[in-house]
Amino acid sequence: MKINNDFFMNLAINEAWKYQFLTYPNPAVGCVVVKGDSEILAIEAHKEAGMPHAEVNALKAAFLKYHPNDVLKTLNDSFKIHEYLIKNHKGFFNDCKVYVTLEPCNHIGKTPSCANLIKELKPNKVIIGHEDSNNDAKGGIETLKLADIDIELDCLKKEAYELLYPFLKWNSGTFIFYKMAQTLNGSVDGAISANQAKAYVHSLRDKIDLLLIGGNTVRTDKPTLDARYIAGRAPNVMIYSKNKIFDRKIPLFHIPNREVVISDDLFKLLDHKFIMVEGTYTLLDTLKEKLDYILLIVNPKIRKGSNALNDLDIDFEIVHENYIGEEKLVFLKRKS
Amino acid sequence: MKINNDFFMNLAINEAWKYQFLTYPNPAVGCVVVKGDSEILAIEAHKEAGMPHAEVNALKAAFLKYHPNDVLKTLNDSFKIHEYLIKNHKGFFNDCKVYVTLEPCNHIGKTPSCANLIKELKPNKVIIGHEDSNNDAKGGIETLKLADIDIELDCLKKEAYELLYPFLKWNSGTFIFYKMAQTLNGSVDGAISANQAKAYVHSLRDKIDLLLIGGNTVRTDKPTLDARYIAGRAPNVMIYSKNKIFDRKIPLFHIPNREVVISDDLFKLLDHKFIMVEGTYTLLDTLKEKLDYILLIVNPKIRKGSNALNDLDIDFEIVHENYIGEEKLVFLKRKS
């Protein structure tokens, strides 16, 4: 296997995917810091909006690899990490390469500018996966170039683009994914997922703008649709149903600070940026042209049961996969 | 992400899985060489029986990383690489760590002993995933210990065991896997796999001892069952059928140097070490207790069609996954 720029960028991309969706409204970004030719110092990612960017996490971890007991270890706030590194780096990064999946941000928002931090630390080279088209944040490449830092663009650009795609979509309109669980052979009957996968779904619910669910699922399953497994925020819900009459004792109607809309107007989806669809197989055919992803949770067992997707005809690309315990999480992007 | 022994061993394990089954009758083995704490010099694997072992490929690549134009580059034969490295290493490996998924071999077979090579190169440490229980090859750890080389055992032992499992099975009896292709939703109708996946299946046919196929599949599909996509060897075939009468014009009967047996006696399988089963869904229930793996090739599309596995009830563990082009290759081990 070749140990080259693609190899290191791939480590950054895989690390970032672990936090895909969970960084909303920010993009998922990964960063790797390599000293010399191939000494790996850090593989880090942006984990949640408001928390340090991938570059900050990676530069901090890289510095600590050589200075394990440095006071930097105790700093978690982005501004403080920036300030500390700029003051104390003493040229540590001058023989380092920084691999980052997305152009470093150039603006000061909830966290300070990564391009500025990198400029001050003066690494030997910055290798970038994909440029940032976001008007607020772009300009990082320009900043680094003006500081005479060597830059290489478009490293694993296609993979970096796929990592960025949900952000590009929710940033310019609406990103919709359908979450479903099935067995290896496609059965959706009965309880499929283990608790670890359920907790992951709750962490998604905690982030999304809207949860879309079918009326029949609500009537049959009487769900709560909250994020209790992670003590998170319950999302607003849209129930897709022509018939507006529901038993108001169903738990989902009794969550504080939640809006519930009952509607059969799918145009309402466009009022939201980040939408998860659950349990509405019958709606999938109608929705399929609007769907960006299916997030498929696969339990590795074979079981008799009905196959909810059998009447569809859609082509996908597997853009990433992770494990959740023994189960598989497959990010499928619809081919348009 | 922690950059530690597990991280490097994981790189070695993933590299080895790329050649799983293709190393038959040898085990799939991976090796990573790291200089100092975390400077990655090589990530290599054993690729085919008779070719250099993982350690030899990795030690060669590591040396070449620092000496890119050395004459070592031109050597491909194991004996010659051993001899050259022992003569010319000049202490290069003394500050290196060698991660190997399996205890280095201690015997001289088609290739010389890896334990002896490592002993001579004197790396700082050897980290081993799983011990070798093979009577012919074991003893490598002992050899290294006697040479005062620091050894750490059982690094990612469970993952190293899963990598080794097919070898353990065919070495002590029979390893049987069922190869099948399906869409995301489990449909098996029509042509599913792309050419790249077909070529991979042919490379498996080139290695196995026996291909088991159902009589109905033979009668309906009239297959050739050779390895023409890779210009490989066509495997011997057992057709599982009570009715012994077949149209002898079916191409599979006309391959030179191939044995074809028509039988409904599954005990005959035990005369072979490495068996692939193709296209006999009806046989799966009978066979399921004997099956070690399902090798599932998943095309990421949803299509209407019949679900061949729906009448089974089996639990699996996903032991590894690779991509073949846009398709997914899933190694599923039956839970017993």
From TrEMBL, chains A, B:
GO terms for biological process: riboflavin biosynthetic process. Its EC number is 1.1.1.193, 3.5.4.26. PROSITE patterns: CYT_DCMP_DEAMINASES_2. InterPro entries: CMP_dCMP_dom, Cytidine_deaminase-like, DHFR-like_dom_sf, Eubact_RibD, RibDG_C. Pathway: Cofactor biosynthesis; riboflavin biosynthesis; 5-amino-6-(D-ribitylamino)uracil from GTP: step 2/4; Cofactor biosynthesis; riboflavin biosynthesis; 5-amino-6-(D-ribitylamino)uracil from GTP: step 3/4. Pfam families: dCMP_cyt_deam_1 (PF00383), RibD_C (PF01872). GO terms for molecular function: 5-amino-6-(5-phosphoribosylamino)uracil reductase activity; diaminohydroxyphosphoribosylaminopyrimidine deaminase activity. Keywords: Multifunctional enzyme. SUPFAM superfamilies: Cytidine deaminase-like, Dihydrofolate reductase-like. Converts 2,5-diamino-6-(ribosylamino)-4(3h)-pyrimidinone 5'-phosphate into 5-amino-6-(ribosylamino)-2,4(1h,3h)-pyrimidinedione 5'-phosphate. This is Riboflavin biosynthesis protein RibD. The lineage of its organism: Bacteria, Pseudomonadati, Campylobacterota, Epsilonproteobacteria, Campylobacterales.
